[in-house]
Amino acid sequence: MQMLSQLSYRPEPTHDIAIRPRGGPVRTIDGVTDPATRPGAELPAWTIRRSTRARRARIVVSDAGEVVVVLPQRAPIATAERMVRDHAAWIGRTVARVRARHAQVHARPTLAEGRALMVNGIPHVVEHRPGPGRTSVIRRLDTDDVGVRASLVVRAADEPTAAAAVDAWLRQQARIVLTERCAALAPALGVRPTRISVRDTRSRWGSAAVSGSLSFSWRLILAPPWVLDTVVVHELVHLRHANHGPAFQALLRMHAPRADEARRWLREHRHELRTALDDGEDTRSVA
Questions:
Q1: Residue 29 sits in which domain range?
Q2: Which pTM value belongs to this model?
Q3: Would you say residue 279 lies in a domain?
Q4: Beta strands 136-143 and 122-130: pairing type?
């Protein structure tokens, strides 16, 4: 069997709908954007993007709420307007959902005001205590009738320094937890990773190389533990099967039966995880 150099658990950053024959695949888009945005009467504004790889017309709503109609090189421009008209209701619902998610994110308290972060399934409230001296992050755990809670006491000169300290602390926690979960889950799959790295990857939640090296996004520490475990299992299974074929899917679902649910969760909460430490308004446009 030919081995691929790398496979990955990728996020799904867009919502899309395609016109295609039943059972036909949707190709990854990699094309050139038309300069004009075409607002139709009583229709949402959209942008046309010509793709050298697209085989079928496709509508995409990005995380920023932008509506893009992806067309094959030879498809007539009229196809874009027809698709937007035919799927105007779907576009409206999807853009509204994206806007609501952005509004929820922007309504969060700042770190200085006591933002709450879910860390490995436990709510952590950030307590910024500004002042001179050494920057530090101390976690304090508490239990009550509801469950375990925690506070992150951050001593830092200002809010940007506090955010950087929390970022570094979260990366450290992610490395600890992901290393532990790989060690706990690998034996049942009969594999042994050679190396585990934790990064701030933008295009994937995890990846596996044929050398046995695994890489994960540190932001998985902000997801529920069962979601993190699913991504870990996904990459461990790639050490057995270097593809997403039937054998891979069977083994994945045997050890991570909530795999589809985890993918949906990551798709719905991707923006939340990506902006967990951000403050201020998102400057990206929303259609």
A1: 12-106
A2: 0.71
A3: no
A4: unpaired
Per-residue pLDDT tens digits for 243-281? 999 999 999 999 999 999 999 999 889 888 988 888 644
Domain count across the chain: 2
18 and 121 together in one domain: no
Burial (0-12, 13-18, 19+ Cβ within 10 Å), 108: middle
Q: What confidence score (pLDDT) does residue 9 get?
A: 54
| Together in a domain, 77 and 182 | no
Local confidence band at 149 (pLDDT 50, 70, 90 cut-offs): confident
Instruction: Report the CATH number at residue 126.
Output: 3.30.2010.10
